[in-house]
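# nightly structure sweep
# worker-07 picked up a monomer target from the shared queue
# config: single-sequence mode, recycle default, output format = structure tokens
# input follows
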Amino acid sequence: MSEDSLLDDALVRLDEAAAHLSIDPDVIEKLKFARETTKVRLMIRMDDGSRKSFLAWRCRYDDTRGPTKGGIRFHPDATADEVETLAFWMTFKCAVMNLPYGGGKGAVQVDPRQLSKAEIERLSRAYIQAFARILGPDRDIPAPDVYTNSMIMGWMADEYAQIVGQAEPAVITGKPISLGGSLGRGDATARGGYYLVRHLSADLGLGENLRVAVQGFGNAGQHIARLLAADGHKIVAVSDSEGGVYSEAGLHVDMLVNAKANGHSVVSTVGQGGHEALKGEALVGVECDLLVPSALENMIHEKNAGTIKARLILELANGPVTPEADAILARKNVIVLPDILANAGGVTVSYFEWVQNKQGFYWTERDIHDRLREIMEREGRAIWNIAKDKGVSVRTAAYVHALDRLAEAIEAHGTQSFFTS
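# output follows
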């Protein structure tokens, strides 16, 4: 894996895209650095009466195209570098989907599994107390991410309302339906990727009965498994943080989902329904047609990319494939549908939630699905055409597509040539 920071690796994508466009150097200078990153320590009272502090960050990477948008994750390995990189990716993801947003991200360095529910609520509210001046429905709009969920977003929205003295549901997306959340938000990340694969299936040369491996069986992993299984595709392997399971005949998806719902690992299903144990790190190399990384960053790297047998990778996680692994996959003719396109269904339906909160009028689930499918197909087709026209990877094409829109917005404020002419 690269010795560079995660953001340095991400900026490689920016340089690759810029090589295919005629854009002003001002654009690259603006996008190389985060606009602002704030670091705080959250101090909360624990259930045993003690006080404990947790590092937390919020990054607003670029707001040229609108208020910044991005999730908040609770994770013990969170770092400032990771937060800025995720915000960079969000900047491009929103531009890919033509949403009127810039990119943002937040995190707390904590293992939420070690906290009680009451401690998690206090931590969530403390986060908003610390960052309320940065947030706002027209400035920076958080959403759920790793180890955060709709209830946590509801607590955060409530805390923000108490601080500003009025209800502001549009300040946070991914809320419970009863608190202004949107129908269709729960499976939006996976559904967007599902619509993309289905739309491009003929171009990708996919058959009707795919063998699918899902790395990471959280929200996105569970929903993509359900959607693909419902279409008759065979889910042959899944994994979570404790290990994996495999079945050549196809896993029982409902059994796996129920295990997770009851707080157990997918490994707990070994020995049932033909499920066999699989070392978690071995999942990327299983015999399959479609590999879906839906866990954390850098899970596919130069040491395991060569073992991949899938013909197609759908990146539901953020940054799961390193640049070094990308080069290996390209030599193996493995097509990668990149994160800034493949998992953009989540932020797209978050945008729908924000719009509904703003106008006070709520759409049906069918409306949400239809609007999401239309955008995924439109932008997916445009990126696929760029890849073919320029002879580049789908990832590079996605960055070219996004950078073109970002450059147009940045250049609209004037560049060096304008001020020196």
